[in-house]
Structures are given as structure tokens and as C-alpha cells.
Amino acid sequence: MTSIRSRILIIEDDRKMSAALVSGIEAAGYDVIAASSAEEGFFLVHSKSPDLLLLDLTLPQRNGLDILKQIRSEGLDIRILILTSHNTVEDRVEGLRTGADDYLGKPFSFPELMARIDALLRRILPPTLGAMVTIGDLAIDTKNRIASRNGQALDLTAREFDLLLYLAENHGRTVSREMLAKDIWRETSRYTPIDNVIDVQVARLRRKVDDPFAVKLLQTVRGLGFSLREPQL
Amino acid sequence: LKIPWPKNIRSKLTLWYLLVLAGLLLVYATLVFAFQYVVLTKQIVHDEIQDVETVEGLLDFNPHGTLELRQDYYSRPQSHLLIDRMMEVRDLSGDVLYRSPTLNGMPLGGENRRGEGDASFDQRIIRLQDGSYVLAISHIHSIQDRVLLIRLGYSLGPLRERMLQFMLLLLLAVPIALALAGFAGQMIAKRALRPLERMTARAEGITASNLSSRLEVRNPDDELGQMARVINHLLDRLEQAFFQLQRFTSDAAHELRTPLASVRTIGEVALEKGHGSDEYREALGSILEETGRLNETIESLLLLAKAEATQPGERQTTFVATDLVNEVLSLLEVVIEERNITVVQESDTEGKVEVLADRSLLRVAILNVLHNALKFSPNNSMLNISYSYSATTPRKLLIAFRDQGPGIPPGEHQRVFERFFTSTARTTASQSGTGLGLSVAKLVIDRIGGEMWFDEQTQPGAKCTIALPIHE
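Output (C-alpha cells, whole complex):
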């Protein structure tokens, strides 16, 4: 990471949501500013030149899409992530066509939002994941698709390996079921059966990765999802 | 100046009717008039020819060589037409030998024409010097070896006067007839449209609160009766949809309130009693799980709304049914393996059967059905999937899913498809999800043009059959 912290502007009219986002994203190490109206947001876009904009589409007075259009027509170099409760496929397509870089439907999981923010800003910074990923005594060879713990190879199915790698990529962060459904299972909508499948799959992975070993790496974070990390002492 | 065109149908109908009638009457009057004129003219000519014959016998040269009409002519009891007779006799060189006193010395027709009266009685209309018109005929006749041209005519005045009277009579009759017809037309239109007025008044009174009210159908076979029936069908569907919407809204509100109540209670209890961060952590995790449930319910409700709005035949594609089932099975594979369930597939169909449906919606339906079957299957049990053709025409593809679970209690085979239905059986109550899975599946299958039911005879376990339209 560079020494300059990325600056994120949040344009969101719901005060509770805005306050929660500010505190959560600041905790992740970003410089966060917030606006509650389109006018204020515009002013901050020009005066503070943020790297990324979190934009709520349903704002008082002015539609979020207008702001999006104007920013794009001015040619400003700024990543834009749309947050909205209108999350049909059509809305999504329209948002992306208007010039948004990403789109997240409300209610979203916070880990997923952070993952998206990181991904969008990583487009500016160089990628960090190498050919070998290690977490504690877990080593993942991303090229040959082999995982081992303490030098002992783990017998994983293709899906299990994908799941483990995805968790490793998001090392230290929590991965929500929504993210897994979208990124690993490639399901566009999330219904009860998918959650069930995810839970069973994670349980199986845990049996192979954690059960034979003393140190447990795959954690379930209640209400949030799963996380691959060394347990804090 | 613009003529105001009437706005209501009754006046429009009457006006059109009157316009057509007026046109017909004018054509009729013109034809009658022309026919009458021709007939009367022919009658005059006929009379004139007879008169010429008579006159020929009465003409004579006196000893002085002057042509005379014999005097005893006046003693005859003739019609007044004879007195009105105008006559001129010329010789072939054009000299006037005789001119009747009725002409008052005016010439009748001027110079001789070539071949005039030679072959037949040449007929023509001549304008006299006083401006009056005469219908005259000419005839060549020889008296005492002298060849004479006799011109004889009657004034057209009386005929024209009579025709004018006739025309006035016709023109007077037409407006009277039109007025009567217009009045009658207006009354007929009013009578014919009266049921429509009644229907309008009735329909105006139908609102959301009395959607069960219907239009009166007096004669189901006439046009208005058919319309009333169609509108009543529409009202049936509206009422049904409205009722569903109402029930659904209240169900949904109830269903959303349950997790919301949990969230509230968990939060309140944690704040009231909790002291350590572990307790808060536990409470927050529990709250987040509830929000997940809320979100799933909303997603399912939206999916239901989407399926509900789907028109039959929309976004249809053809694809192989077994491929879709296998795709869903591979998604659920890990659950199947974990529970050590054996999936057995058998088929009575030959080859790959293609079905016609919205693939993404059908996938959700089959996923829900299979997941439901797996949910109730005990560990180490068997799940049968069989494919066969229906006995109906057109034949459909039947896909039956049979599990070895607890089955469905009697009387609940229909109710399991109700939204938010949870079985009374204790074994299932603990495993219920959003309560929308099977409702979504059934609605989707219905919209695709298929059917879905649970077999009531199957014991033990449950057998769910889906019938799908085949692409042949």
C-alpha cells in the first residue's frame, strides 16, 4: 500500500446508514467524508477530489443518476460504487451503463462492500496476491491448485479449493454468504437453498482444513459469514 | 363556420341515418321527376301526332289558292288542347302558307331544315319570340299535288308549370319525411343504447369495496350481453387478483413482523441485561441472522411478484429438461453427499425431451422442489426422480420427485402450496424456511403452462410431480 490513504466520499441521505458507513470504512483505514445531499456531494467532489464515491441513488431533490452523469460528463477520474434498494437487473444495467464502476443492492453485507471498495481502489494500486499464499501454516499454490497445512497436502475438490482460495484472497476479512453465492457459485439471486449449500460446503472444507490440526483457521463469524485467519491470542 | 359534430353515439347514429336517408330520397325524387317528365312529354308528342293527322284532313286550298283550315273544326267538341294548338304550314321553298291565330303572327321555328319531317315526325323544342317554349313536331304532307311542311306544337308552359308544382311537392315532402325519420331514428337509437346506459351506471358504482358486484346480463346472446359477460369475466379476475393482493400483503406484513420482533427483543434484552462484549457480540450476531431471514423473505416475495407478472410464453426458450434437473442436482450435490442420500433417476421417455419455458424461473422452481425434498429426507435415504409422458393431449413431460421423508399429513396436499404455510406435523415445523419455496415453485410452473401437485396416495414419503409443456 502507498502511504497516501485513499479518500472515499459517501453521498447518502439516510443519517444512520451514513454514520455506520463512515465509522466502518474509517476503521478499515480510509479517509472518509460524507454528504447528505447531491449539492453538498458535488461541492465535495470538486473541493476534496475523492478517489471513490459511494452513491445512493434515491436522494432528495436530485436523482443519484444525474450526479453520476454529470461527474462522467466532466471526465473526473473517480471510481463510483452505487448503493441502492432498487436492485433489479434493469436498474443494475442502467447504473453501470451510466458510468458506475460497480453496483451493490441494499441491504448489502458490510464485508462485501469493503471487498468491493478494495477491489475498485486496487485497480489503481498493484495487485497483491502472488503465486503462493500463506496464512499461518496453510500454504496455497494458486498456480498448481494445491493446498497444504504444515507441509501436509490437503485433498480438496475443485469447489473446495476455489472456496479456500477466495477466503485466502480475502485474508483477515470476513466473507459473507452473498459474496460466496455470487463469486463462487455464480448465482445471481440468493435463496434459502443456496445458503444451505454454502453452509454444508464450508462445513466440509473445515473438516479437511481444520479438523486434523490444532490451530483452527476457518472461522464462522455469526451473522456475518466466514473468515480465514489465524486466531488472535 | 364549422358544423358541430355530435359527440354521443345516439346522435351520431341518427345523423348518419338521416344523411343516408336524405341522399336516397333525393335520388328517388330525381328519378320520379325525370320519369314523369319523359312520360308527359311523350304523351304530348303522341297527341300532336294524332292532331297532325286530324289537321291534314282539315287543310284545303280555297279557289283563290290560299290555304285554309276548315271552319267546321270549331263546331267539334274537342279538348282545350286543340284550341291551344299552334300551327304553321310552309311550302318547301319556305313561304308561310298558314299560321294559326294562337301564334299571334310569330314564326314557329324559322327556316326549313333539310329533311325536316321527311321520314317521321321530327320533334324539337322551339323558343318563340315572346320567350315561351313550344314542343313542336314537323311533318311533310301533300294537298292537291302541293307538298307542304306542317309544323304543329303545344306550349310547354302548362307542362312546366305542373312539373314545377310536382317538384315543390316532392321538396316539401322530403324534409317532413326526414324529420319523422330522424325522430324515429333517435328513439330507436335511444332504445338500443339504453342497456349500455344501465351498464355504465352499474359499472360506475363498482369500486374496490364492492368488487363482487356484477353487470346485469339480460340477453347473453346479443352484442351487449356478450360485452357484459366479458366485462364480468374481467371483474372476476380483478376481484381474484385484488383478493390475492390483499391477503398476500397482510401475510407478508405478518411474516416480516416475526423476524422484526426477534430483532427488537434481542436488542432490548441485550441492552437491558448485557454487561460484557461477548453478550453484545452474541446479540448482534443473532440480529444479523434475523436480518438475513428478512432479506430472504423479501427476495422471495419479489420473485413471486415477478412470476405473477410473467405472461404465459414470455422469455420462453427450449431446453432439455434432464439437463436442468442435473444442473440443480450438481448445485445441491454437496448437501446430497453430506446427508448420504442416493439419487436414482429413471426415465420412460425416449431420447432427450425438450421443454418450453422461462429457464431461469423454472430453475428456481426445480431448485425449491428438490431442496424441499432433500430437507425432509432422512439421512442415508433414497430420492427418486422419474420422467414420463402424461396421458393428456397435448402430452406433457412429467417429472416426479419422490422422497422417503415423513410425507404430507392428510388434507394438507393442497395447502402446502399456500404462501407462508407451515405444516402442523411436528417433524416439519422445526425445518421450515421462508414458507415461500413451494408457493414460488407452483406459481412459476403455473405461469409456464404446467402443473404441479403432491400425490395423495403416496405413502410413505412424499411425491411431487411437475408437468411441463413439451417442445415437439
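Chain A is about 40% helix and 20% strand.
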